[in-house]
Amino acid sequence: MSDEQVRVGTEGDGERVEMPVVQLLTGRGFITGKSGSGKSNTASVVVEELLEAGYPVLIVDTDGEYYGLKEEYELLHAGADEECDIQVGPEHAEKVAELALEQNVPTILDVSGYLDEAAANDLLRETARHLFAKEKKLKKPFLLVVEEVHEYIPEGGGMDETGRMLIKIGKRGRKHGLGIVGISQRPADVKKDFITQANWLVWHRLTWDNDTKVVGRIVGGEYGERVAELDAGEAFLQTDWTDGDVRRVRFKRKRTFDAGATPGLDDFERPELKSVSDGLVGDLASITADQQREQERVAELERELAQRDRRIDQLERELESARDVSEAASRMADALSGSGSMPPAQATLSEATMDEELERLRSENTALEAEIEELHGRLADPSPEAEPGQSSGSVEDADDDTEAAGIAAEIEAASRRSLCSEAQTWAVIEALAERDGATATEVGRAVSAPFQHVWTLLMELRECSCVERRSDGIYTLSPTARELVRESADPLSV
């Protein structure tokens, strides 16, 4: 690949203009020009030539212009619209990066259809982050194409985490094999550090003074004056590998359907488009299904929590009423006997029963609130970055130590969501491990912990499948949790 070249156009004398593949894939590029000048065609030509040579890319499409590539090439078209192969959100970012980088699937990340700009921004940031993290290990030549780059890395501040991630790729991606090309019709609005550090630049026609001044400062004064005279499809090409030499180039027309062309009055016939295999789309769809199930679980828990809150309010009102009756009965008994009699036994029992019920409901609500908070956290941060040197991992890939650590982590998380301390939690685990089964009351006695504390812990352990409850109310450790205790004398050391 080091000597491989792709043809992108011709100079005025008809001489072929070629660009080295390795520089396109791993370098930093910048393509600019006003609307209609040919900048999107140039970007498509670069992408087509790389795809033709067998190299995958990931395109961040902000205007839905690139789906025409599917006329010739099998690409994954992911976005929010129904016309995409799969509808994706930030929770799919790691899988999108994996398919593009590790499975060589050319990908269009179409962010044009998102009504929620924050979701589109999160999707781009997380996808770029996973690309960068995976490339540190793979070091595989790969190009990230970003349309309307000024929206993410603007000149004059206002850059968010997405912009900082793209800048990071620009500065440090090359040594890992990850290149980036930014495309914009307003170079004056793009962060100058990105432009000045690019090792290949394409300047199509620009007419606004602020934009032509950028050309003058970076390319040279004469080009700042001449850039407004370029015809559509023409551009000044400046590359590091030709010692900064500037050539006037007419870029060739792209081969595929121009999805970004301005609609006209002529009859429009959309070409037959290609898509990637159903299996790859299915991988992403399964993530969507998991996300939907978690959202439904949150809604279910919130409904249950609201119902219990209403029950608590009702019990508190009944308890207050019972106390008023008890106090009145006590005063009457005092008046009749002339002594400080105790309240009637029935009233006392009623109050105690309602107090116990209130305590139980409050404990259950605490556990429900903790579970809802955890689910909201997973929905907000669906794909935490793996530690360096680790993949995101799957159950099939985990060894025994990793599985044991995962079970221990589940138990500790359940402990934090319950009313039990960490010491009480592991005492409960050990008590269950020593028995074939026990009720919550029996476990509480064995570990000298309050019933409500033990009950909330057992409920949390059931949620993470570490504990099972039989129909007769007997709790038992799951086989995996029992194995964890059996193999380790000290569970905290797992």
TrEMBL record:
Reaction catalyzed = ATP + H2O = ADP + phosphate + H(+); Couples ATP hydrolysis with the unwinding of duplex DNA by translocating in the 3'-5' direction
Q: Name one Pfam family in it.
A: DUF87
Name the SUPFAM superfamilies for this protein.
Answer: P-loop containing nucleoside triphosphate hydrolases (SSF52540), Winged helix' DNA-binding domain (SSF46785)
Query: Which residue stretches belong to region Disordered?
Result: 318-346, 376-402
Residues forming the Helicase HerA central domain are: 23-77
Gene Ontology terms, MF aspect: 3'-5' DNA helicase activity; 5'-3' DNA helicase activity
Q: Which residues form a coiled coil?
A: none
Which InterPro entries has this protein been placed in? HerA-like, HerA_central, P-loop_NTPase, WH_DNA-bd_sf
Instruction: Report which superkingdom the organism of origin falls in.
Output: Archaea
Q: Which family does it belong to?
A: Belongs to the HerA family.
Q: Mind telling me what this protein is named?
A: Helicase HerA central domain-containing protein
- Organism from which the protein derives: Halalkalicoccus jeotgali (strain DSM 18796 / CECT 7217 / JCM 14584 / KCTC 4019 / B3)
Q: What is the lineage of its organism?
A: Archaea, Methanobacteriati, Methanobacteriota, Stenosarchaea group, Halobacteria
